[in-house]
Each structure stands twice: as C-alpha cells, then as structure tokens.
Amino acid sequence: MNNLKKNKLIDSAFKTVGMLFTLLGIIVLAILLYNIIKVGYTRINWDFLTSLPSRRASKAGIYTAIVGTLDLMLLTVIFAIPVGVGAGIYLEEYAKKSRFSRLLEINIANLAGVPSIIYGLLGLGIFVRFFGFGGSILSGALTMSLLILPIIIVATRESIKAVSPSLKEASFALGASKWQTIQRVIIPSSFGGILTGIILSLSRAIGETAPLIVVGAMAYVPFIPHSLFDTFSVLPMQIFTWTTRPQDGFAIAAAGAIIILLAITFIMNGIAVYFRNKWQNKLQ
C-alpha cells in the first residue's frame, strides 16, 4: 500500500510539473507572438507582398521569397510524397521480416531525428556538386525531399499499422488480391493519418533555413525563378538575412515576414486537420 501511495504521489508530481512547463511554454510563445505581431503588422500591406527585395528597408518586399517558398514546397511534394508513401506501404505490407528489414526500419526512424544541416551537406555533395544542379531550386527541393522522407515513411507505416486486421481479412475472404486490399481498404482507412504526416512534414520543411543556405539559396534575388535551374530565395532565408541587418526598418520587415510565414504554416496545418476529419467522418 505504501508503494502504491508513493507511485501515485510521483505520478501526480510529474503531471503537475508537466502542466507547469506546458503553461510556461504557452506563455512564452504568446509573448513572442504578441511582440512579433505588434512590430510587424504595420509593415504588412500589398506593396510589401508584391515588391522585390531592396537594400532600402522601406522598399523591401517578399514577393520573390513567397514565390520561391511556394515553388520549393510544390516540387518537394512532387518528389517526396510518392516515394515516401510508396516506401511506407512496401515496408509494412510487402517487405519480409528479417534482420535487414528491421535494421532498415531503425535507420529510417533515426533519420527522422537527424539535424537538418546534415541533409544540407548531403544535398550539397550530391545534387549541387555531383549532379551539377548548382544552387538551383531543383537542388533545394531535392534536399528538402530527403529531409522529410523519413517522416512521411514513418507516418505512413504507423497509419497502416492502425488499420484493423479484420478489415484486411474480410477483403482477402472476398477474394481481393494483395494490391486490391491495399488500394481499396488499407489506403482509404489510413489516408487521414498519412495526410497528417505529410502536412506536418511540410510544415517543418517550410521553416528550414540551414539546409537551404548550404545548397545555395540566395539572400537577394531580384527576380522570380522561371525554371528548375534558376537561383531562388525563400521566406526563412529572407527573414534570416533581414534580422542580421543593423537597420530597424529591416527588423520590422523581418517581423512582417515572420507573420506571413506563420500564416502559411497555420493554413497548411488547418488544411491537414480539415481533410483528416473529413476523411474519418467519411469512413464512419
């Protein structure tokens, strides 16, 4: 009985400490957001969104950074989603359980926690130098695809694992093949979790700066990219550059760009929640 009471007290203490740290984190985040919005909202207008970068803070805009960010995310989606989802399906449904497959699964899970700068160095060595793509938007997209691939693979596998085995057995009992079961039962049932993992991985990628600096993203690009081999800039890179400038005007511009970046991230997460709930309601 004494041990039971001690365990309850310990659990209660951990819960209390956890709640306090969570509350503290929320307060700190709220203060940061308040300060950013207070400083940056005055800078947000149509000219700020449609103007090119400038060495004058009052004329500096984020048009090329927004276009570069959206292009980069679109290419990353095209490269990463088919490979990531396909790899997750293969590892969970087709790969034989062996030492090699277990080692592969462990390494994929570990890759999800590798610092992003390592992926930047990998992209620099493979895409920029070996394949000769240079500091282009193609190099950036391929590097970001490597960054989010482990997250998509893990999310896909976990979503497939959550599908009830009875659904698979019922499909096989009705004469469906392996691929028909995956296509018509497993993927529809796990689509909400897969989509959530994809959007969350893109939300991480959209805020990354270090790997893009390594592969050659530019701080000042006075034009929007028209091909896969053009140089580019993105919002995190633009924010990083402005925050290093001594003029107060660039600090205000950086705060405005942070608000835009947060808005894009919140919209992406909102879309993920909407489609996940819609798909789950459809299946019920």
- Name the CATH superfamily classification of the largest domain: MetI-like
**N-to-C SSE string, H for helix and E for strand:** HHHHHHHHHHH
What is the CATH architecture annotation of the largest domain? Orthogonal Bundle
Rg, Å, rounded: 23 Å
Helix coverage percent: over 70%
Mean pLDDT: 83
Keywords: Cell membrane, Membrane, Transmembrane, Transmembrane helix, Transport
Transmembrane segments: 20-41, 61-91, 111-131, 137-156, 210-229, 249-275
Family: Belongs to the binding-protein-dependent transport system permease family. CysTW subfamily.
Membrane topology: Multi-pass membrane protein
Structure characterization notes:
It is a single chain. The chain starts with a helix and ends with a helix. The chain is 77% helix and 0% strand. It folds into two domains: 2-43; 46-283, MetI-like (MetI-like fold), CATH 1.10.3720. It has eleven helices and no strands. It has 284 residues and is mainly α. The chain crosses the membrane at residues 20-41, 61-91, 111-131, 137-156, 210-229, 249-275. This is Phosphate transport system permease protein PstA.
Task: Summarize it.
The protein is mainly α and 284 residues long.
List the defining traits of the structure above.
single chain, 284 residues, mainly alpha, 11 helices, membrane, MetI-like, Phosphate transport system permease protein PstA, Phosphate_PstA
Lay out the secondary structure.
Elements: H1 2-40, H2 46-50, H3 63-94, H4 99-111, H5 116-130, H6 137-161, H7 165-173, H8 178-206, H9 210-215, H10 235-243, H11 248-283
Helix pairs in contact: 1-11, 3-6, 3-8, 3-10, 4-6, 5-6, 6-8, 7-8, 8-11, 10-11
